[in-house]
Amino acid sequence: MHRFFAPDIAETLTLPEQESQHAVRVLRLAEGDEIEVVDGKGNLYLCRIALAHSKRCGVEITGRTAVPNHWQGKIIVAVAPTKNLDRMEWMAEKATEMGVDRIIPLLCRHSERKELKTERLMKILVSAMKQSLKATLPQLDEMTPIARVLTDASLPRQRFVAYCDAATERRQFEQCYSLEEDVVIMIGPEGDFSPEEVELAVANGFVPVTFGESRLRTETAAMYAVAACHALKQK
Amino acid sequence: MHRFFAPDIAETLTLPEQESQHAVRVLRLAEGDEIEVVDGKGNLYLCRIALAHSKRCGVEITGRTAVPNHWQGKIIVAVAPTKNLDRMEWMAEKATEMGVDRIIPLLCRHSERKELKTERLMKILVSAMKQSLKATLPQLDEMTPIARVLTDASLPRQRFVAYCDAATERRQFEQCYSLEEDVVIMIGPEGDFSPEEVELAVANGFVPVTFGESRLRTETAAMYAVAACHALKQK
After folding, report:
1. What is the pLDDT of residue A168?
2. B196 pLDDT band (50/70/90 cuts)?
3. 3-class state of residue A152 by DSSP
4. If you ran DSSP here, which 8-state letter would residue A31 be given?
5. Which residues of B touch A217 (CB under 8 A)?
6. CA end-to-end span of chain A, whole Å?
7. Taking CB atoms and an 8 Å limit, are B212 and A70 in contact across chains?
8. How many whole angstroms separate alpha carbon B207 and alpha carbon B160?
9. Which CATH number fits domain A3-66: 2.40.50.140, 3.40.720.10, 3.30.450.20, 2.40.240.20?
10. A84 — phi, psi (to 5°)?
């Protein structure tokens, strides 16, 4: 069955314009057809099209299922967007498919990309959420200076900073990740974190970790981190 | 130090044309400059440029280090190339960065892509090998019909087929992967394996597995499989 995204479906009983267009114009769905609608907050609605309007497609809700994320312990990645935006977008797509709770685009001293439009990324997250049969949209923050992330007391206590510099003492991520606790993993830009950033991170409870002997690109490290969390949880 | 790829460096003492061009034209390296050269077979050579020729850059070898892959137990993925070639290329890049021994492009009944030029992919593997500081190039096979993979007795005995159809009894991959043994993991095309393909796979010792509750795209599943192997090995 076709799946649509409508954050306020329970209140509006109407698909957003783009989703309406896709349903009615592209897929040529008609009144009476059944569709699935997720609200990005963990709910999956079974709906029947009541008004096949190509801008404001109206629906009748025939059922609701709670579809919480299937993993225990939130996974938050704070990652410096790559200079090449494609790489960031792929990472966000893959992380969402595998399962991530929140992505914080990180502004670091060595960041090659200082600005980020989250609108386009958001669309990718929506599509990846639908694709991977989830009903919860990851939280996507605006670009956030690292200092603000480091001192954000609302972030989980289990916090890691993935750092490339082998001169710093680092633990093996897989060996210190506590599976059921919420976690935030920080991943630096192409030029890595500055030593001062790492120092400040450590002072704020971030444990320096490595993902192994391969030197991973920023977006690969972020994808690996998310994959590793799930692999270890599913072991 | 700059790193180059030259499969026959020990015999030829010369960089291939493209690498010569990059060294001499782009990076403007000159006689006497030191470079690193990997041969894709696990050797890292320390070299000094002896002849800064932009097509046949000559070198003198001053040292050799064996750099075997850092993981135990080969990781082989047999994956159906995606319709969108970009997705396959990203997957191959990421798998190489994280560490993979062999990639077998799989031709299945539901494959949307029936042909694959491996030349371009090979360049991506070379670049990802250099980027991630490895000295071994993954083996990249030509497009191979699934029947030939299924009956290839030279493949490892630990064999899995990742299958989306929840109606089939599947084990959780992370719970049955034996870390130190070589492994081959088969991942199907966008339209999944046909039931006959899965049946034949099972008859040939492939264990049907799932990677969890998220429905992953083909290339995400392949990347996840490689990441999961490393995460579990590094635990």
Report:
1. 84
2. very high
3. coil
4. T
5. 97, 131
6. 31
7. yes
8. 5
9. 2.40.240.20
10. -80, 110
Mean pLDDT computed over B133-148: 97
Q: Using pLDDT thresholds of 50, 70 and 90, give the confidence band for residue A166.
A: confident
Question: Residues B102, B74: contact at Cβ < 8 Å?
Answer: yes
Do residues B28 and B42 touch, judged by C-beta distance below 8 A? no
Of A28-37, A124-133, A161-170, B206-215, the poorest mean pLDDT is in: A161-170
ipTM: 0.95
**What's residue A109's pLDDT?**
96
**Res. B4 pLDDT band, cuts 50 70 90:** very high
Residue B153 near residue B64 (C-beta atoms within 8 A): no
In chain B, whose CA is at the least distance from the CA of A233? B174
Give Cβ neighbours of residue A31 (< 8 Å, ≥ 6 apart).
Answer: A49, A50, A51, A52
Per the CB < 8 Å rule, is A131 touching B90? no
Q: Which distant-in-sequence residues (6+ apart) come within 8 Å of B131 by Cβ?
A: A215, A217, B97
- Residues B37 and B4: beta-carbon distance below 8 Å: yes
Q: What is the mean pLDDT of chain B?
A: 96
Assign domain A75-233 to its CATH superfamily: SPOUT methyltransferase, trefoil knot domain (3.40.1280.10)
Measured between CB atoms, which of B70, B134, B212 is closest to A230? Answer: B212
Size (chain B), residues: 235
Q: Exposed, middle or buried by CB within 10 Å (0-12, 13-18, 19+), for A42?
A: middle
Q: Taking the CA of residue B55 as centre, how many other CA atoms within 13 Å lie in the half-sphere pointing to its CB?
A: 0
Within 10 angstroms of residue B120's Cβ, the number of other Cβ atoms is 11
- Cβ–Cβ below 8 Å for A214 and B172: no
Domains in chain B: boundaries: 3-66, 75-233
Distance CA A72, CA B52 (A): 57
- With CA atoms as reference, report the closest residue to A57 among A96, A26, A91, A93: A26
Angstroms from B17 CA to nearest CA on chain A: 26
Q: What is d(CA B57, CA B54) in angstroms, rounded to the nearest whole number?
A: 6
**The pLDDT value given to residue A170:** 95
The token duo for A224 is: 């690996």
Place of tokens 């919860």: A136
Nearest beta carbon to residue A212 from set B131, B217, B230? B230
- Distance (Å, rounded) from C-alpha B58 to C-alpha B60? 7
What confidence score (pLDDT) does residue A232 get? 98
